[in-house]
Write a structure and sequence with these properties.
The protein has 422 residues and is α/β, with parallel strands linked by helices. The protein is built from 13 helices and 24 strands.
Length: 422
């Protein structure tokens, strides 16, 4: 198991290129199960562990893939299979998104319950609700989701949940519906850019979808889907993380291949806090022109402030003079990073779904442990700004969501390296 060592208190300068979005690429790869022909996926973050896990899962389901740089060429070979084993699915929550395409294509599926980061309860009831409305019988047997259908038919489906819409439930329902007979209408659909990117890919394959990117998606079922070529959108969470990396180190960074339209809630809060974010000829420029000010932020479904940026924002507010309140309305238990930031000197205490952050002048390096993907990023950011040396253990979480993070940060002037844990 690896750990990251960071010697902080260095201003980051230079440019960094944002990779393709993991959370868009994974459902798109799952959607290739619906295709009768070859698909070419470009701008894929192929060095990420989650991408490699998905390709192993697709191989187990009867797909062949070839990786060339940031491109994946994938096509069906031989007989399709409907069994998604625990060994693969248990390591990554996004694996559950093979359920929709398997049911849509084969009318059956045996998919293990998903795994992934430990960030609080993440039920899959909305997946069941959406797919079952299409005429699919769903049961849970021995840790597996068992799905069977004689025929899938269009339906009116409401996918609102206790904490809002669900990205993966919307994706799963949409992928199951594209080959169903008749018209499907999904109300309270997730509006995230990753959902729209998946729908754009399905349309290129021959699906008939309207309204994606809005809370109401209309799907007219078709008989078959062909191959397609598609380029994955940039990773808005990686871009947001590097924006905060510039702000927390008082740096000056050009961020390339970032889509500001996907980051409006984040850039609005950071601008309010005193971060300068401007368009540059080859990207966006991020720097500080004055002392940072505290801000309150509430995590909400898109286009609200993303839960996947909550931990990173907390690191920034930890070194911002004043009181900030960060409220988590997507995963109220997603605060495992708080205790680790406090080990570095942060002054954060929890009150229900809110974290009250009293900013201090500077954090101190310390041994800390990562609990999940975004918590790992928050600890890296804290380490970049801290005095002395920070050691972050269990950084395998980072490898699930950030491509070559040490390499990218070193090019910006950070002192960061990886070592084996003893």
């Amino acid at each position: 198991m690896d750990k990251l060592i960071i010697e902080g208190s260095r201003k980051l300068k230079g440019s960094v290129r944002i990779s393709g979005a993991k959370n868009a690429c994974l459902p798109i790869l799952a959607a290739t199960l619906l295709a009768d022909e070859k698909c070419v996926i470009k701008n894929s973050p192929n060095s990420l562990r989650d991408i490699m896990t998905m390709l192993k899962l697709l191989k187990a389901l009867g797909m062949k893939s070839v990786v060339e740089g940031d491109t994946i060429i994938i096509e069906p070979v031989g007989e399709r299979k409907s069994f998604a084993p625990y060994k693969l699915v248990s390591t990554m929550r996004a694996s559950v998104c093979v359920l929709g395409p398997l049911v849509g294509k084969l009318k059956q599926a045996n998919v293990s319950f998903p795994g992934g980061c430990i960030i609080g309860p993440r039920p899959i009831d909305l997946h069941f609700k959406g797919i079952s409305r299409l005429g699919v019988d769903l049961k849970i047997k021995k840790g597996y989701i068992v799905a069977r259908a004689k025929e899938l038919h269009g339906a009116d489906i409401y996918l609102g949940g206790h904490f809002g819409s669900s990205v993966l439930a919307t994706a799963n329902t949409m992928m199951a519906a594209v080959l169903a007979k008749g018209k499907t209408v999904i109300e309270s659909a997730a509006c995230e850019p990753e959902v729209k990117d998946l729908a754009d890919f399905l349309v290129k394959m021959g699906a008939k979808i309207k309204g994606h990117g809005s809370p109401r998606i209309e799907i007219e079922g078709v008989k078959r889907l062909g191959g397609a070529e598609h380029s994955v959108i940039p990773d808005r969470i990686e871009a947001g993380t590097y924006i905060i990396a510039s702000a927390i180190t008082d740096g000056d960074i050009i961020i390339k291949n970032a889509n500001l339209e996907h980051l409006t809630a984040v850039t609005d809060k950071l601008t309010e806090a005193g971060v300068s974010i401007t368009r540059a000829a080859d990207g966006i420029r991020v720097r500080r022109k004055k002392a940072l000010s505290p801000v309150d932020a509430t995590m909400l479904p898109y286009p609200g402030f993303p839960t996947d940026m909550q931990a990173q924002m907390m690191s920034l507010m930890s070194v911002t003079k004043g009181i900030s309140v960060i409220t988590e309305k997507i995963y109220p238990g997603r605060f495992m990073h708080v205790s680790e930031l406090n080990r570095m000197g942060a002054q954060i205490h929890l009150e229900g779904p809110s974290a009250i952050v009293k900013g201090i002048k500077r954090l101190s390096g310390a041994p800390v442990m990562a609990s999940d993907l975004r918590a790992s990023a928050a600890l890296v950011l804290a380490g970049l700004a801290a005095d002395d040396k920070t050691e972050i253990s269990r950084v395998y979480h980072l490898d699930r969501g950030y491509e070559r993070i040490e390499e990218k940060l070193r090019k910006l002037g950070a002192r960061i390296w990886r070592e084996k844990e003893i």
